[in-house]
TrEMBL record:
Source organism phylogeny: Bacteria, Pseudomonadati, Bacteroidota, Flavobacteriia, Flavobacteriales
Gene Ontology BP terms: 'de novo' pyrimidine nucleobase biosynthetic process; 'de novo' UMP biosynthetic process
Superkingdom assignment: Bacteria
Orotidine 5'-phosphate decarboxylase domain ranges (all copies): 16-254
The reaction(s) this protein catalyses: orotidine 5'-phosphate + H(+) = UMP + CO2
Main EC class the enzyme belongs to: lyase
NCBIfam families, alphabetized: pyrF_sub2
Keyword Ribosomal protein: no
Keyword Zinc-finger: no
Protein name: Orotidine-5'-phosphate decarboxylase
Pathway(s) it belongs to: Pyrimidine metabolism; UMP biosynthesis via de novo pathway; UMP from orotate: step 2/2
């Protein structure tokens, strides 16, 4: 998928919602635990109930890796289900990888070729040669952590190094890398005050914005300075949507929560004259 197709989806669905599939066996409805693959059954029901309201899904791989082989198989079934049944959906493996070059290229192969995700999240701490192997894959996106939603973001990311915040240097430097047009960036919704600065450095890039819902970030605040001329935002919510209910109606309850965010997004897209 390319960004033109992604933008078309956003305008068609009047939504820039990304649903986080952070599927936790301790939180899903108990009746699903009797199934052969409860994680996949849960994801399938959530996807079927919400696909018309969302343009992207983001399984966080930690929630699958935690269950070993069965978890990884559930992840594989989930991405295959999305790619087969909803090929218009943008998929994100939230894996936060990054290592020396030859190892990064194996990570990239795992997520882009074997699992066929459209994108993967990457931690930039190891620098250019740890990120460029991901960028070498055509028509795939590397979503680099820029300014994360957690409190610990202030430990390093906002610290001044040679008079400039580290996250700004990360953004600026990444633009000099080969195939930088295939970069997107993670900026937390809880860091709304920083969006103006972020946009001044990466005006054209898509931002993946986690932190609305359970972490308390505000969609309206994010959109004030986070949008660009082509929308440029994918706003993620996981717990706030997928665990809306724990009875047999869980997927409908999730769809209700997704609809609430989609309607807010529709209003914002209208106000910004995108639709
Ligand atoms: O800065 C970041 C980067 C990644 N995440 C991930 O996004 C989701 C958020 O889930 P919620 O339940 O909507 O809070 C989760 O997978 C995080 O690991 C983030 O929150 N912040």
């Amino acid at each position: 998928m390319n960004t033109t197709q992604l933008i078309q989806q956003i305008l068609k669905k009047k939504s820039f919602l990304c649903i986080g599939l952070d599927t936790d066996l301790d939180k899903i409805p108990a009746f699903l635990l009797a199934k052969e693959d409860p994680i996949f059954e849960f994801n399938k029901a959530i996807i079927d109930a919400t696909h018309h309201l969302a343009v992207a899904y983001k399984p966080n791989t930690a929630f699958y890796e935690a269950y070993g082989l069965k978890g990884w198989q559930a992840l594989e079934k989930t991405i295959n289900y999305l790619n087969t049944n909803y090929p218009e959906i943008f998929t994100i493996a939230d894996a936060k990888r990054g290592d020396i070059g030859n190892t990064s290229s194996r990570y990239a192969k795992a997520f882009f070729e074997d699992l066929a995700f459209d994108s993967v999240t990457v931690a930039p701490y190891m620098g250019k040669d740890s990120v460029e192997p991901f960028l070498a894959f055509q028509d795939k996106f590397t979503i680099m952590l820029a300014l994360t939603s957690n409190q610990g973001a202030f430990d390093f990311q906002t610290q001044l190094i040679k008079n400039e915040e580290l996250y700004k240097q990360v953004l600026k430097t990444s633009l000099t890398w080969e195939n930088s047009a295939q970069l997107m960036y993670v900026v937390g919704a809880t860091k709304a005050a920083y969006f103006k600065e972020v946009r001044s450095i990466v005006p054209d890039s898509f931002l993946l914005v986690p932190g609305v819902g359970a972490q308390g970030g505000s969609l309206a605040e994010v959109c004030k300075y986070g949008m660009n001329t082509k929308v440029g935002l994918l706003v993620n919510s996981a717990r706030g949507i997928i665990y809306a209910a724990t009875d047999t109606n869980f997927a409908f309850a999730a769809a209700d929560k997704a609809r609430e965010l989609q309607l807010e997004m529709q209003k914002i897209l209208t106000e910004h004259k995108f639709i």
